[in-house]
Amino acid sequence: MASVITEEDDQLKDIEQFKQNLEAVPAIDLIPVYASPVEREIFNLFFTLLTDLTPKYIEKTIQTAYIFDRVESKIIPQEKEGKISTFLEEFVSLFHKYKHIGSLDKSVASQIRLKYFSPDENMSAEAKRLKLIAEINKIVNKEYKIPSHSSIKSSLLNLETQRYLDTKKTGTKTLWHLNPEFYQHWQERRNQLVDKFDKYQKESKKLLGNKNIEAMIKMINKYPPIVLEFYGIAYWRILKGNISIKKYERPISLIYRYLDDINILTRY
């Protein structure tokens, strides 16, 4: 697995190269480029689910994706490994086991769901999630801290100010949703990129299975991964296993990486 630092360096290089061609880039393509990491995760969550979401669901889902990443990426400094609480240490062990054999042994997922994401007589599910966040944030370096309630709320309000998201009231609930005009603009641009991918496929002289790969390589050379992710273009599914472009075998977005795991391991 590539280190987190290497992945971030590659991402910055792709973005800077993309910015050099600003005159030829549609304005909407620049939204993920200038958005914060949390704002990009919010976008990807909405574009994946395409439904109204409560602020609590958004917060829990994004924070849990960060929890899973911080544990799987092994970014806990070595000098602090001895300071990990038993609560976190057991979670780390179970999560690594789940990622390795979870598809073969369903009991591991059940253990995680019951022990860390379900209420019991001593602690609510919310308290357990917050405890995991607090324990991880105590030991990771500043740049890897899991975003707080206030930072996610601030990101939502910023996206609302820019007219990318709107809110509505349903009884006493506040629901967030994509701004309809923005979503229509996004759909139109996404269709253009899908058409471009189809065009590259048709132009390819490769055999059928490799046409997809060649077409996606052209797309990834033209658009940074965060831009393709913004449009829900799953380049990693096509490029996975291709040794020459190993750095693209999984998405940058933590929502895309872990949403399936969140659905399996939590009760959100």
Write out key terms for the chains shown.
two-stranded antiparallel ribbon, mainly alpha, 268 residues, 13 helices, globular, 4% strand
Descriptive report:
It is a single chain. By secondary structure, the chain is mostly helical. It is 63% helix and 4% strand. It has 13 helices and two strands, in the order ααααααααββααααα. Strands 1-2 form a two-stranded antiparallel sheet. Helix 4 crosses helix 7 (125-139) and helix 4 crosses helix 13. The protein is globular. The mean pLDDT is 90.
In brief, what are we looking at here?
The chain is mainly alpha-helical and 268 residues long.
String of helices and strands? HHHHHHHHEEHHHHH
Number of helices: 13
Helical residue percent band: 55-70%
| Rg | 20 Å
Q: Averaging pLDDT over every residue, what do you get?
A: 90
**What best-fitting shape do the alpha-carbon axes yield?**
globular
Present the secondary structure layout:
Layout: H1 4-19, H2 31-34, H3 37-49, H4 55-72, H5 86-101, H6 106-116, H7 125-139, H8 149-161, E1 165-170, E2 173-178, H9 180-203, H10 208-222, H11 225-230, H12 235-239, H13 254-265
Helix pairs in contact: 4-7, 4-13, 5-6, 9-10
